[in-house]
Amino acid sequence: VGQLEYIHLSAPFVAVRNKEVNLTAVLWPSQVGTVTYIWWIGNNTEPVITLEGSIACTFSREGINTVTVQVSAGNTILQDRKTIAVHEYFQSHLLAFSSNLDDHNPDVAEWRLDVSRVIKNSLIQATGVREDQLLVTVLPGLPTAAEFFLLPDKQLTEGKPEKSSAHLDQLSEVLLSALNQNLVQFTLRPGVQVTVYAAHLSAATQRHSESEHRYK
Which of 70, 121, 126, 152 could bridge across to 178 with cysteines, CB 3.0–4.6 Å? Predict the structure, then answer.
């Protein structure tokens, strides 16, 4: 039995209001004896204590919610925190890249964060979609993959789900059209031009992101 060295809280980037999501604490090494998990979810002041490394929860209010897990094993205590954007409705789609991006992917969180911002900017430039309606996250691992999330415009849709749905269908078509025409590109560094593609074109829209399992 080793000593706990590192933990990672795996959580979806975006969640639907009042729809269950799974949070998982990944430990390294995985065998560290008896482990206690303490979870702080959203604005609940009372933590939840479990002996299992995963928990299901729902968020009743829209906006940014913070989830924190504290892991105790032996005399080691580590914690990790994630933010989850909670919305009434969203659409998401997976992105793929020209293979040259993999050559420059060190698979660390800081790099993913930086490249997520670059991808988001290149999508905005190619399509004119508003910044506050688009979220992009690069997923861990290789080959490099990412996911974009389209969020409803509250003023335009007046909070009505059917208006949100039609509005996001239109936005999604604009983005996928640009991606399919290879209009979304960015320069990673001098001489390295990366093209962004839509992955799994047959699944043109994935309602309520079904790719949560990729968050490891």
Answer: 126
Cα separation, 170 vs 185, in Å, equals: 22
Task: Evaluate the CA torsion angle 123, 125, 126, 128 in order and state its sign.
Answer: positive
Nearest to 124 by CA among 65, 196, 43: 196
Architecture of domain 6-87: Sandwich (2.60)
Residue 120, H or E segment: helix 109-127
pLDDT tens for 87-124 read 988 999 999 999 999 999 999 989 999 999 999 999 99
The candidate with the shortest Cα–Cα distance to 93, out of 154, 152, 125, 135, is 135
- Dist CA 208 CA 14 (whole Å): 9
Maximum Cα–Cα distance across the chain: 56
Cα 169 to Cα 148: distance, rounded to the nearest angstrom: 14
Give the residue ranges of the chain where pLDDT is below 50.
Answer: 201-216
Domain ranges of the chain: 6-87, 91-214
| Spatial distance between the Cα atoms of 24 and 162, rounded to a whole number of angstroms | 33
- Nearest one of 186, 211, 13 to 93, comparing CA atoms: 211
